[in-house]
Structures are given as C-alpha cells and as structure tokens.
C-alpha cells in the first residue's frame, strides 16, 4: 500500500538534511531500513501507539530549539564510579574527553568507522533486533535511526568487563539534532554494566540493540540529564538467551518531551529481564515509557517497574505490554506503573496490557495514580520532621521500588542523591 | 506542663462538635489517665493536641509549658516536646525505620538549635533502646511499621518516644491489640521514661494498662467533656461498674 502523499512529504522533509552513509555492510543495513521507513512513514498523533504522546516535536524537519542547561551546580553523575568514559557532544564523538577505548573483556568500535570493517557480530545485530521489534507494532522512529545514525558504539563483551562503560552525552548547541545507534553483544557468560547520562542534544534519537547470550548479564543505568527544553526518543531492543539477565533503569528529570521504548524478547529458558524507570517532572514535562516484553521461552521472569512524580501540569504516560507466546510455560511476569500527582494539574495516562497464550503462567499488573498520603505525612510531622522533608521522604519512598532495580549500591545511591537534589530544587 | 482550657473542637468538614469544653492540667512528673466510652472524644483530644488536620478549634486553648500549642505546626509541637503514640501507627513503605528515626531525632535537634547526632552515636543509642523493647535489628531495617504485628507497632511507638525524649507524652490506646507480654514490654518502656521533668497522658478503655503504668490522676471523659476526676481508685470503679453509673450521674 502506497503511503499517502502528505506522509511521504513529511518523511522527505524530516530526512532531507540527514546524511546517509552507503559504504560496506552498514550501508546495506541502512538502505534496507530506509526502504522500510519509506513504506511506513513517520508516526502521527492519530496513530494508536502515539495516542497519549504527540510525536510532532520528534518528527518535524528541524529540531525545535532547546536552550542548553547549566548543571554545574551538581557534581557530574557517576563521578565516584570507576568507569570507562566515552563522550559525545551533540551526538559527535569527542576523543579528547573520552578515555582510551581499550578495556579488558570488551571490544569497542565506533559505528562511524565500522562500515568498511567486517565486524561479523555487528552485522547480525545492527537493524536486526530493531527490525524484529517492528512486529506487531511499528516503530518508525527507530527505523529512521537505523537508516541515519551518524555514530554510536559497537560493544562486544567477551568476559566480565573490568569496569562499567559510561556513555556521556553533552548538549552544547540549542539546535542540535543527534542520532546515535549502539549495538551491544554480551557473549555467553560475559557481563557488563553500561551507564548513560546527559541530555545529548536539543533533539536526541537513540537506539540500542542488545543481545544477551546464554548466561550473560547486562546492566544498564541511565539518567537523561536536567535540561528542561530537550526532546528525546530512545529505543532499547533486547534479545535474551537461556539464563541471561537484562536489567535496565532510567532516571528522567525534566525535558519537554521524552519517549523511552523498551522492546525485550525472552528467547531462552529461564531468562530474566527487568526494566524500570523513575521520572520526575515539574511543569512543561511530558514523559512516555512504552514497553513491550515478549515471553517466548519457559520459566522466564520479567518485571516492569515505572514510577512517576508529576507536578504543575506535568504529564506521564505508560504503555506496557507483556506478551506470553504459546509454550512459554511457567512465565512469571510483573508490571507496575504508578504516578504520584503532587497537584491537580498533573496527569498520568496508562495503558497496561497482558496478552497470554500459555496456560501455566503467573502474570500481574497494576497501575495507580494518587496524591501524597496525608496520614503518613502527619505521622512524620508529628515526630518533628518538617513538612517539606517529610514530603521528600515520601516521594523517595514512592520511587524506591524502581530504584531497587539497580543492583549496584553505589550507583543506586548516586541516582537517589540526584532525586533528592531535584526534590530540594522543586519544593514549594 | 500541659494546660487545656475550655477546649471546643468540631470536625472541619461537618458541623459536628466533638469536644465541648475540656479542661485539663497535667503537671511535670505526673501521669494522668483518661478513660471513657467509645465516641467520648478521647482520640480527638490527642489528635487535636498533636495537630492533625480535619479539626477546627472553636474555643479554648492548650498550652505546653506556657506556649500555645494550637497555633503551631505538628513538627513544631514535636520540637516543643509533645509526643503522641498513635492508636494505629502508620505504615510507610519505602522509608526505613532507622532513616525515619534518625531524620526525626535530628530534625528536632535542629529545630531546638542543638547539634545533630552523628550516625555512630545514633546507632549506638538506638540499638541499646531497641534491645530493651525487644526490637531486633531486622525491625529497625524494615520500612516503618510495614509487616509489623500489632505489638511490634506499639513497641516501635515507644522506641520513637524513647529516642525523641519528649516532655509531654500522650499515649492513645497504646494497650489496644496487645497481649499480656507485649503490654508488659510497652509498660516497662513507658515506666523507664517516667521522670520529674516529663508528664504522661494515657488514654485507655481498660483499667488493665493502669496496673502497669500507675497513674496519679484518672479522668473520665464522656460526650466531649471530662465529667469526673479522681485518683487511681476511679479506674477500678469503672472496671467494676462500667461507665453507666458515672454517665447517669451527669445527665
């Protein structure tokens, strides 16, 4: 079916200024993605999957202007963590600010220079997991990313990574429009922690494709920076082998528009996938977590834990699905999405879904939104805790279940301190 | 210590008068008990003194060491030395008991212009006091009151009281839901805090708590007023005869 002219025009306008690298295997993968994109067009707010989030800011030709935010009043996140730092400024690799890319147990290549090189494992991943993730729901912004990403990292983990790999995204230009695409392959039995932080650009598109092989472990903790005006659309596509572990946590504070999608396939028996998020927004803030977990093997466990704190008209969205395929017996699926509305102007829109084709499974989901518990607040105050402090304690308590998904205690503490900072700045 | 004069209180949301002129004076070093039938206004009195929302004071005053309590925020009352042991201690998922205790202790110290307690000192003190109340390390680590049994919750209230060292302690039906052993633990905890500079107001339905925490003065409250005041023998009288005679006497 041909795309309507208006959709063709919108797509042409969006991709007109983007560079398209043709060389090597990567060029072939990009061309294939461009063909897919041309057939589906860009998302619009009338699409069911974008019912709660208007994608306009992500699809217009030019990135809407976003002022650079000075966050120097706080020490950089993950500062105290021994890690390998890789810096991108407005989507451009910054070799001077980055560490040497050599790390025991890990091979790291840049996507921008990988097109000519024959990196077999990456050929089997780039655009492949993303492509699989287009069914049953189309995700055109991820396809666009595959076709036009200017850089990114190809990370192959062969052992236990000596240190976490830390991707730092700096936003320096009001008009930057960055597209990055990472592939991570964690080989059987290997283990890595990937940290990401920073606002990245005025508009940021990022795809991460993650293959976690048998018995391998992948930890991912990211924070999306404090910029108020930036926009971002991110996708994580993950495929897990038998006994593999995947854990991803995202902290989002501020940002006018964020859409974070996680598409996870549990393909080997006894695989475990946890995806969690804590989002805090004050005012012009729209945050959308869209998650799709597919159980395609036996005795797998998945958890989705998403918490949002919203005030002054901030909007939170959660679309989460657990699909249990025929034969995926003994599945243990859990999904919770909750929002704490600190005033009556804020909004939380949730669409939790379960689709189950196996008969011996345990799946639960819950979604709530509510205000601060006044009884708990009084109890704390009656012990001498000032109202603002008591409120912050209760907000952090509300977010605790999502932060508990971070295994490393030092990293969790860092994230907690960020939230405390945000709460202190936004109390009134 | 505590001086309540002609206190009238109604519910904020509806036109229902709960307290209709309560007069009560508790001196430092004394233990007063308030007994009374359900709905007499005992718990309302404790909530109003602690500053819970939802009540409107229409007349009267309540002072703690000369300071007007009713004008203060709940946390200011706490810092001034008032403590309410809740009838139904509140569960707070996600807030560790230890964090809660330390935040409260240090907030009060800060409000009084005192130095905050170091983590090490705090830990030492809390462990020692917890041990006396048979509160184990696990209970200290768990979220506030979450998964605690009725008795554990009440012991946790007494632990908070012991840590905060208030001047004026109000115990709202602290005996409800306690078995004999727990009642003894809680009472021992309270008695250990009895002191010349501290006063207690013990609200209860039953005389049995007063066997353990011996009051100096017993008040009978009914229909929003204190209708009779006497010595410990008044509690025994209620235990034997019920409230009917007393109520008949004032109506």
TrEMBL record, chain A:
Limits of the SUF system FeS cluster assembly SufBD core domain: 172-398
Domain of life: Bacteria
Xref: PANTHER family: PROTEIN ABCI7, CHLOROPLASTIC (PTHR43575)
NCBIfam families per UniProt: sufD
Name of the molecule in the record: Fe-S cluster assembly protein SufD
Organism encoding this protein: Paragemmobacter amnigenus
Gene name of the record: sufD
Automatic annotation (TrEMBL), chain B:
Boundaries of every ABC transporter domain copy: 2-248
SUPFAM superfamilies listed in its UniProt record: P-loop containing nucleoside triphosphate hydrolases (SSF52540)
InterPro entries for this protein: AAA+_ATPase (IPR003593), ABC_transporter-like_ATP-bd (IPR003439), ABC_transporter-like_CS (IPR017871), FeS-cluster_ATPase_SufC (IPR010230), P-loop_NTPase (IPR027417)
Entry superkingdom: Bacteria
Alphabetically ordered keywords of this record: ATP-binding, Nucleotide-binding
Family membership noted in the UniProt record: Belongs to the ABC transporter superfamily. Ycf16 family.
Cross-referenced PANTHER family: ABC TRANSPORTER I FAMILY MEMBER 6, CHLOROPLASTIC (PTHR43204:SF1)
Record's protein name: Fe-S cluster assembly ATPase SufC
Organism name: Paragemmobacter amnigenus
